[in-house]
Design a protein that fits this description.
two-stranded parallel sheet, mainly alpha, 4 strands, 490 residues, two-stranded antiparallel ribbon, 2% strand
Amino acid sequence: MGYASQMIIFYGNISYVVILAWAFLYFFSSFSGKLPWASCNNTWNTDRCVEINNYNTTANWTSPVNASSSSSVIEFWQRRVLNISSGIDAIGSIRWDLSLCLFLSWVICYFCVWKGVRSTGKATYFTATFPFVLLVVLFFRGMTLPGAFHGIKYYLYPDPSRLVDPQVWMDAGTQIFYSYAICLGYMTTFGSYNKYNNNCYRDSFYLCLLNSGTSIMSGFAIFSVLGYMSVKQGVDISSVAESGPGLVFIVYPQAVTLLPWPHIWSVCFFFMIILLGIDGQFAGLESNVTSLTDLYPSYLRKGYRRELLLLLLCAASSLLGLFLVTEAGAYILQIFDHYVCSGPTLLLMAIFQSVIIGWIYGAGRFSDNIEDMIGYKPLPLFKYCWLYITPLICSGTLVFLLLRYSPMRFNNTYVYPWWAYWIGWFLAMSSLSMIPINMIVKLAKEKGSFWQRLKTTSQPADDLPRMAKEMPSINALLNVQNKEQNDPML
């Protein structure tokens, strides 16, 4: 499981850092005299370009008359930032400005992680707390805009019919996995630096409350602005609400052009995105480096070998990431996102981990371990979650996803060539295959029949800390052994 999760994190580090490069490009562009995505007077604009501020707000953007038009924001995104090609088979050239932003992202991440948790912890004080300040500013600004409550209503009253769409469940599950950093080793890595008696049970509740509370508050900040946009443009809010990169790099840049002092709000928003991206990026780097260091401690904990390992990882990842800043980079990013960093891959990881904890290691033993660390048992509900609820929900979601499977499409229109789908499944299996390969290797090293080997390899590790409740029986056994050694009559 550890090898598989680290492979997924490595792939995520390569792919998601390009979003950080996009954010840097928008951030630097925010300091220009006029926001470049607010006008059609640029070299990348076409004759079909329309400026939102100059557009007749009473017109209907969804009507066939205007179907051939495109906003200045979309043209900046597609023609200036991505310069997107016709398909993944037309890879085109490397975007030099994006490649420089990519290099800058990796340099920042390297110096945030190069001294281990000492530098990571100090960096987190700023990268994890200052976005809250910016989020509060954007929240109050959004709530004071005309039409804000129109967007809030849309946010609080979702469409129940979307629940039958498997993509909705996959996106929701992916968001939970990544926002809570579960099933991928992030928490295991950083938790390994805690003291044995750290109250991880309490911290998990705090994490859930803080994370979910931040997500809810972010929803108010975003949808209040979307409501303002729908009123300003005279269109339904569903036509301006998007998800994924479109929300960050199309909708919100378009929103700031409609606000007073657009440069200030643009700088604040993209600076917040950069800090959040850096925070998540160096968490993945720290997990990879710590895992390798713990695997080969006698070799990598000498001198500057850890720093050199980190430099090698950053250099290799940045070179591989150059494919993502080509003219076909957006197509490649979707392959990574769809096959490696979300969907069936993460669902299978969740199923395997819950089955291993609940049924092989034992939910009762795991609960006893937590009691030994914090002094009291967790709620009995968690046992049922480990045993039944989590594996059943994840298995049901996976089956539902497979039954309603449809081939991946870019922007719901572009169909990938057959070999692109094979690349996606190869990337997915290259991480998940670590589980059976590691199991076969361990079984091959043991002796005895197949069932004896399986039983031996399914036992907990010998070097686990002894629980306090086991100590009396262990001490009694040691005392008996000492008496037998010291008494010559026995």
